[in-house]
Specification:
Largest sheet: 6 strands, parallel
Number of helices: 11
CATH topology of the largest domain: Rossmann fold
Distance between the termini: 68 Å
Number of domains: 3
Order of helices and strands: HHHEHEHEHEEHEHEHEHEEHEE
Number of strands: 12
Strand order of the largest sheet: 2-1-3-4-5-11
Radius of gyration: 23 Å
CATH class of the largest domain: Alpha Beta
CATH superfamily of the largest domain: Response regulator
């Protein structure tokens, strides 16, 4: 049901005129009253009307692409490919391209919800959410509500690289097979003879981290191995560097390190070199994602390839309504093991 200005006024205990003054900012209003009105707006998820020029259509020419960190190549590649696809196939009301805006959440679940609210209020034509989701029931429930409201208003919603949101049946989802890719990676190390393996994982509360950890542990369990040394941190080089030094203090006899991403793996390799250890002679190292630099690392990095460019392009096409919608609104994007020089059998 559409929330009206009168509903906001009743919820805040003020007149509709006062609500209008607060939202338009064109008349002095007591601070306490202003805060009460804004709280009512948020609680009722009230959507302001856009400019008069956009009222003729259900949606505007705006497309939002949400990323955790635009400086991370993982997100940059997806966002760039999506934006290019949107620009190539879309035509705005005036005959021009859609305005695709990249929204950098910094990994903050609160900021993600804020951007979804802002895009809803701007009647965005489409929203693309990339990467993993914050794995918290309250946040997921709030996200499902936001996505439903966006869909009801005519906004196309596409998830790229994340699983479906529980309780939401509106979004089209391109989910990466993080579990399967992680399992392949650990099975590769086990096939080489490694048994003293350590894991450097991403933040614990994200679906990407949980799913990759599930895959690694499934392979270890199938080989009869229990818990292995594990450190969680950010998906960055510094995290890989510090985690590797900590793991070697805890398990100096380890022979392989599984890193959460290629960027984390670079930090792990740097730490090993600084400690006088060779790769893969002393310790094998693996990454994840197959970012462009992985093949040029020294040694070239064994990793899992996710088709980031293609996934981003498909997400952009789906956002514009020109891509083929998968059956049931969900497709799993396969992950491919890429074996290079950073892994080898452990020394006897």
């Amino acid at each position: 049901m559409t929330v009206t200005l009168a509903d906001v006024a009743a919820h805040a205990g003020v007149s509709p005129a006062t609500v209008s003054r607060v939202l338009n900012g064109n008349y002095p209003v007591a601070e306490a009253t202003r805060e009460r009105v804004l709280q009512a707006v948020d609680e009722l998820d009230y959507v302001l009307n856009g400019p008069a020029s956009s009222l003729a259509a259900a949606t505007s020419d705006l497309v939002g692409i949400l990323v955790n960190d635009i400086a991370d190549p993982f997100f940059g590649i997806i966002a760039g490919a999506a934006q290019n696809a949107i620009g190539a196939c879309a035509s705005g009301r005036a005959g021009g391209e859609k305005l695709a805006v990249v929204c950098n959440t910094g990994g903050s679940p609160e900021r993600e919800l804020m951007y979804l609210t802002l895009l809803q209020r701007q009647r965005a034509a489409a929203v693309v959410l990339t990467g993993g989701s914050y794995d918290d029931p309250e946040h997921l429930a709030a996200t499902a509500t936001k996505l439903a409201r966006l869909s009801e208003a005519g906004t196309r919603v596409v998830l790229c690289g994340r699983p479906p949101v529980p309780g939401d049946a509106t979004a089209t989802t391109l989910a990466f097979d993080n579990r399967g890719g992680a399992r392949k990676l650990t099975e590769h190390l086990l096939s080489l003879g490694h048994r003293r393996i350590a894991l450097i994982m991403g933040p614990e509360r994200y679906t990407t981290t949980r799913h990759r950890l599930d895959g690694h542990r499934a392979a270890l369990a199938a080989a009869g191995l229990g818990d292995v040394p594990t450190v969680h941190g950010l998906y960055d080089r510094a995290s890989g560097y510090e985690a590797t030094r900590e793991l070697l203090r805890r398990a100096p006899d380890l022979t392989a390190i599984v890193a959460a991403s290629d960027t984390v793996a670079l930090g792990a390799c740097a730490a090993l070199r600084d400690l006088g250890l060779s790769i893969p002679g002393d310790v094998s190292v693996t990454g994840f994602d197959d970012l462009p630099f992985a093949i040029d690392a020294s040694p070239a990095l064994t990793t899992v390839r996710l088709p980031l460019q293609d996934a981003g392009r498909r997400a952009g096409l789906l956002a514009m309504g020109t891509g083929d919608v998968p059956a049931g609104g969900l497709t799993t994007v396969e992950a491919e093991l890429v074996v290079r020089e950073s892994t080898a059998p452990p020394r006897a």
